[in-house]
């Protein structure tokens, strides 16, 4: 998927589903943990330097695996580069679990599974296929 800086900046300014200041370590060997404002907007995970309004970077949460690494830390790794992990440190295990759940739900794959599930449930209850869900599944 291609995005330009203006598009990403516009998306980063939308209301976030989740936001917090977390410790973050990039995927490069030797990267150290730095405090970053982390925002989940749709299926993008933006990270900002704590004193900047523009994002320092963004992760598109597709084809990735989100895992709890420690009680207060989780990682995001992409399937095509599984050895490169972004590590995030939270204040508590509860906060960590909330982030893992939110990031897992934000992916396209998760949304598509939900649509398929609800389409099946509507079909079971009504005997009909919901046209709206059919259209959503077609375009996803």
Question: How are the SSEs ordered, and which strands pair?
Answer:
Elements: H1 5-12, E1 18-25, E2 34-41, E3 44-49, E4 57-60, E5 64-70, E6 73-78, E7 81-89, H2 93-106, H3 108-126, H4 131-139
Antiparallel strand pairs: 1-2, 1-7, 2-3, 3-4, 5-6, 6-7
Helix pairs in contact: 3-4
Structure characterization notes:
This is Pleckstrin homology domain-containing family J member 1. Residues 15-108 form the PH domain. Pfam families: PH. The chain is an alpha+beta fold and 140 residues long. Helix content is 36%, strand content 34%. A hairpin with a 7-residue loop joins strand 3 and strand 4. The model has no long low-confidence stretch (mean pLDDT 84).
Short structural description:
This protein has 140 residues and is an alpha+beta fold. The protein has helices spanning 5-12, 93-106, 108-126, 131-139, and strands at residues 18-25, 34-41, 44-49, 57-60, 64-70, 73-78, 81-89. The two termini are 14 Å apart.
Strand content: 25-35%
H/E element sequence = HEEEEEEEHHH
- Could you say which overall geometry the principal axes of the C-alpha atoms support? globular
Gyration radius (Cα, Å) is 17 Å
Helix fraction? 25-40%
Q: N- to C-terminal separation?
A: 14 Å
Mean pLDDT: 84
Strand order of the largest sheet: 4-3-2-1-7-6-5
Structural class: alpha+beta
- Show unreliable segments: none
Task: State the total count of DSSP E strands.
Answer: 7
Major sheet details: 7 strands, antiparallel
Secondary structure tally, helices:
4
Protein name: Pleckstrin homology domain-containing family J member 1
Pfam family, one: PH
Organism: Polyodon spathula (North American paddlefish)
Domain PH: 15-108
């Amino acid at each position: 998927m291609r995005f330009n800086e203006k598009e990403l900046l516009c998306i980063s300014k939308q209301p976030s589903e989740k936001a917090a200041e977390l410790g973050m370590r990039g995927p490069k060997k030797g990267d150290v943990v730095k405090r970053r404002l982390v925002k989940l907007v749709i299926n993008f995970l933006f990270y900002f330097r704590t004193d900047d309004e523009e994002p320092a970077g963004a992760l598109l949460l597709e084809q990735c695996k989100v895992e709890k690494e420690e009680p207060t830390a989780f990682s995001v790794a992409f399937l095509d580069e599984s050895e490169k992990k972004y590590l995030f440190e939270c204040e508590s295990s509860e906060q960590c679990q909330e982030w893992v759940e939110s990031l897992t739900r934000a992916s396209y794959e998760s949304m598509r599974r939900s649509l398929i599930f609800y389409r099946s449930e509507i079909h079971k209850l009504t005997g009909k296929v919901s046209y709206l869900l059919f259209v959503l599944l077609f375009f996803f």
